[in-house]
Amino acid sequence: MIYETLEIVKDQVSKYLEQKTTDANLVVLENVSKHEDPDTNTMNDKVVLSLLNIEEEIALKNNPNIKVKNGETIYKNAPVNLNVFALFSANRNTYTRSLTAISFIIEFFQSKKIFTQVNTPLNPAIPALENIKEFRFIAELYTPTFEQLNYIWGTLGGKALPSVVYKISIVKIESDALLEKGTPITEVSGILNNIT
Questions:
Q1: pLDDT tens-place string over residues 63-95
Q2: Using CB atoms within 10 A of its CB, is residue 132 exposed (0-12), middle (13-18) or buried (19+)?
Q3: Residue 93 class from Cβ within 10 Å (0-12 exposed, 13-18 middle, 19+ buried)?
Q4: Which side of the chain, N or C, has fewer Cβ within a 10 Å radius?
Q5: pTM (predicted TM-score)
Q6: b/e string for 45-61 if b means 16 or more Cβ within 10 A?
Q7: Beta strands 180-182 and 72-75: pairing type?
Q8: CA 97 to each of CA 40, 53, 124, 161, 193: distance values in angstroms, whole numbers, following the listed order
Q9: For residue 166, how many other CB atoms are within 10 A of its CB?
Q10: 140 close to 169: Cβ distance less than 8 angstroms
Q11: How is the chain split into domains, by residue range?
């Protein structure tokens, strides 16, 4: 679901930027560390969306995952809930166009923070989104310190681009594998002894 979530975000931001700049397909989902690679021209004059980090949302880690369906109790492992850190890097052909793109991205997320299947139409041209029925995640601006930003761009290979980081919460990953099935407990019986 990480890839699918980033595809949804990429598509939504790209549509917004197209309205603001009239440039179609401006956002690409790529590894920004390769933006200076001469063999990679897919990032030229684009906004590059890259996965920066993944962390588990530990507050939701211990929720039980038991469901009753058709009179049967189904036990599964709890889903893994993730926070995904997404980096938008503006690799436009001029610095001013890069800054403008970053401003529009911040503007987009200011107007839309919560993404669900109700308020976010999926692009049928993206095959990875065909089987998604239900989703919900929230995008929040994440501001790394200067030291963290230096470390991020050092890790990515050097030259910093105008960029912004968003924390996308909660991306749920859940397998269909069952631990076990059983009948639900409908009554409790027993004998109580008088204790004196």
A1: 666 666 677 777 767 777 889 999 999 999 999
A2: middle
A3: exposed
A4: C
A5: 0.79
A6: ebbbbbbbeeeeeeeee
A7: antiparallel
A8: 21, 27, 29, 12, 81
A9: 23
A10: yes
A11: 2-180
